[in-house]
Amino acid sequence: MSSFDPRQLAEIDPKKISTAEFQELLTAASQQAGEPGGTEGLEAVDPAAFARLIGRARRDQLEAVMSSPVRSVVLDQIFHRFADHYRAGEPRPPKVIHWKVSGRPDGGVDEYELVLHGDRCEANSVVQHGADTTIMLGGPEFLLLTSGNAKPTTMFMTGKLKVRGDLGLAAVLAKIFVIPTS
């Protein structure tokens, strides 16, 4: 699959392929980065196209990706893009949001941190600050939430998303970030 261009993901209907093929596509897209003459990997995929792909995927496909080695590449890419989708405002004291995404292949939890400064957003793959808010959810739920394919209120009410700390900060995240939609 070395000739695979990650931008082709936008044209794929996940419902027409198997779970293994879906996982293989995202793995191939993530491996393009760093290859001689390769594209930027998942960075080359338009956020709206990625949102569409996730929204059309079956639950078993999302679970397979989030329990595979490509999970870390997908999570890193999504968190890297948080800064691009941040609605910057006036400089103000930072607010820190910790994300705990469960369902790692080894049974563990991936932890990330967003530091919102008002005028900018930093995404860290290593937790460095105390959290104002901690958001906990499973891998497939994280993909659906961050791609605009799930409603956070519904996820919270059904127990698929849990929040500790400042509930008000968690409640306004959709207003702080421009969430790509399909």
Head-to-tail CA distance between termini: 26 Å
Number of strands: 5
CATH class of the largest domain: Alpha Beta
Helix content: 25-40%
Order of strands, widest sheet: 3-2-1-4-5
Q: Which of globular, elongated, flat, extended, rod-shaped describes the shape?
A: globular
Biggest sheet record: 5 strands, mixed
- What name does CATH use for the topology of the largest domain? Nonspecific Lipid-transfer Protein, Chain A
Tally of separate domains = 2
Q: Roughly what is the average pLDDT, rounded to an integer?
A: 87
Name given to the CATH architecture of the largest domain: 2-Layer Sandwich
CATH superfamily of the largest domain: SCP2 sterol-binding domain
Attribute tags:
globular; SCP2_sterol-bd_dom_sf; SCP2 domain-containing protein; 182 residues; SCP2_sterol-bd_dom; five-stranded mixed β-sheet; alpha+beta; Nonspecific Lipid-transfer Protein, Chain A
Describe the structure.
The protein is globular. With 182 residues, the chain is of the alpha+beta class. A five-stranded mixed β-sheet has the order 3-2-1-4-5. It folds into two domains: 6-82, no CATH class; 88-176, 2-Layer Sandwich (Nonspecific Lipid-transfer Protein, Chain A). The two termini are 26 Å apart. Helix 1 crosses helix 3. Helices cover 36% and strands 17% of the residues. Residues 95-177 form the SCP2 domain. InterPro entries: SCP2_sterol-bd_dom, SCP2_sterol-bd_dom_sf. This is SCP2 domain-containing protein.
